[in-house]
Design a protein that fits this description.
CATH class of the largest domain: Mainly Alpha
Number of domains: 2
Number of strands: 2
Largest sheet: 2 strands, antiparallel
Structural class: mainly alpha
CATH architecture of the largest domain: Up-down Bundle
Helix content: 55-70%
Mean pLDDT: 83
Distance between the termini: 25 Å
Strand content: 5-15%
CATH topology of the largest domain: f41 fragment of flagellin, N-terminal domain
CATH superfamily of the largest domain: f41 fragment of flagellin, N-terminal domain
Order of helices and strands: HHHEEHH
Low-confidence stretches: none
Length: 296
Amino acid sequence: MLSSSLLTNTSAMTALESLNMTQQSLSQTENQVSTGLAISSAADNASYWSIAAKMTSNVGALGAVSNALNESQAMVSTMTTALTSTLSVMDSIKNDLVTASQPGADLTKIQTDITAQQTSLLSIGQSSNFNGVNFLETSGANVNLVASYDSSNGVGFLTVDTSNTALFGTAGAASTTGILGQTGAAFTGASILTLNITAATAGDLANMLTDVETAISSITTAASILGSTTTNLTTQQSYISNLTDSLTTGVGALVDANMNEASTKLAALQVQQQLGVQSLSIANQNTQLILKLFGG
């Protein structure tokens, strides 16, 4: 049996200690319910918190990769659309050359149409600019598109060699590089952008048609390259999305609170808190009884 004392109320001290422990558990559980996290700081579990923090950081980086992939897809789509338009214009030039090969054809009038088509080719290539990047009007450098990230190897890239997609260099019609800028058959000594049939012979026209066919083939190849790049970007976007989901799930497994369990525990602790307050009140009544003895 516990003894009573004016200076020390052992029963009240025990009840108060029990209530404090309940309050601490209640505070922790309330935090879990309100934040949804069982581990919200390193103090809760240093190991799990550290792993989760690193994984969360990687999820953020993968989000940036996903945004970059979306931008790259739009960029490649712009170039692909431009190449499709280029092929259409090249077909028109090809048709003009076939028409010019007919005896008695008015070469001057046909050249007027070809000149308009050449202007269109320049316009298409020069306007295919996406955020300062152009695969068609370029000297042929590699373009590295962000495709992945991991903490060990850093950023990974999908590389597009624009020397295979360039229609002409930055000099426009005066370019001597690219599919449309390079000099064609030795007999004509002209590029697709500079060919002129006004005084062309039958042999000249045959060489020009050969040059146009070669250019069309190269443009088709360039479009195929960009098509493959689009497929790779789509595949990578799907992978990054799945990886992000996996990491997010992993983080949740480490730090997320079991809300059913936490809510049940919260209700139990609230009852325990009420009982603790009652126990402390009862224990404090012992001192009141002793005071009554002195008062009597």
